[in-house]
Amino acid sequence: MAFSSIIIAVLLLCLLASGSIGPQADCDVYAATGSNFTVRLQHVLKDSDSLRWFQDENQIFYRRSKQVIRGKNYDVDSTGSLKLTQLTKDKSGRYTPQVHRADGTSAGDLPSVRLCVLDPVQKPKVTVTCDKTKVTFTCDAGQDEKIEWFMDGETVAEKEKTLTRPAEDVLNARFSCNVSNPVSSEISQPVQQDCIKPSDHSGIWIAVGICICLVVILVIICCVQSRWKK
Ligand SMILES: *[C@@H]1O[C@H](CO)[C@@H](O)[C@H](O)[C@H]1NC(C)=O
Ligand SMILES: *[C@@H]1O[C@H](CO)[C@@H](O)[C@H](O)[C@H]1NC(C)=O
Q: Any stretches that span the bilayer, and where are they (predicted)?
């Protein structure tokens, strides 16, 4: 018995977890904070009809015989559609209309809309960290935001917050990230790695040059010595 209730508990937890992966997974419409959105009434309204709008379980608007009984803050247009302005996150929810005819009968189930209000994304920044020969680029995107990386303007396969490459491969490459959510997207300034200075290679070439010079001098000395011996 205890075992089966554990299984049930685990199953319930899984269900809850899968629901919480995308809290916005069950939205019909997304809108940005501060924007306006109109929930359409999909019913031709008569003057004698009474109209109610609900946000989830709360009645936010009620008009009967052209008299508004509830909902000064909510504006309803001439077609009965609900005009939501200056959206804030607490305006997220399911909006359902209800229409009753003059004789009190219902006009039936009318379509509802699940609205999710989200903040637009912030412009991201890319930071660079070095680890011996590897360079890691980090995009400071927020939670639940989609990431896309560009290397010299071309998209790369990685979609995570960090991107790691051998420094040698990306000496002069410019990396930027595009952060988006359902209501907006922003792209960062491009950055370059600073782990290996491309000018560091001049040291190698100077060393190579010195070696060649030494070899040449040695060869000359050898030649001169063998001449003297003759
Ligand atoms: C939203 O609606 C208000 C009132 O109707 C209006 O003043 C404002 O300009 C609208 N804002 C946007 C972003 O359309
Ligand atoms: C950034 O990503 C969003 C969402 O995928 C997309 O709509 C937008 O066009 C992208 N911006 C650029 C510059 O690629």
A: 203-224
Q: What is the distance in A from the centroid of ligand 2 to the CA of 147?
A: 9
Over 90: is that where the pLDDT of 226 sits?
no
pTM equals 0.69
CB atoms closer than 10 angstroms to residue 218: 10
Domains of the chain, earliest start first = 23-118 (2.60.40.10), 126-192 (2.60.40.10)
155 lines ligand 1 (CB under 6 A): no
Cα(185) to centroid(ligand 2), Å = 6
Q: Could you tell me the distance, in angstroms and rounded to a whole number, from the CA of residue 117 to the centre of ligand 2? A: 20
* pLDDT of 40 higher than 80: yes
Ligand nearest to the CA of 77: 1
Q: What is the pLDDT of residue 146?
A: 97
| Whether pLDDT at 149 is above 70 | yes
More confident residue, 18 or 98: 98
* Atom number of ligand 1 nearest to Cα 35: 13
Which of 58-62, 87-91, 161-165, 200-204 is predicted with the least confidence, judged by mean pLDDT? 200-204
Q: Whose CA is nearest to atom 11 of ligand 2?
A: 178
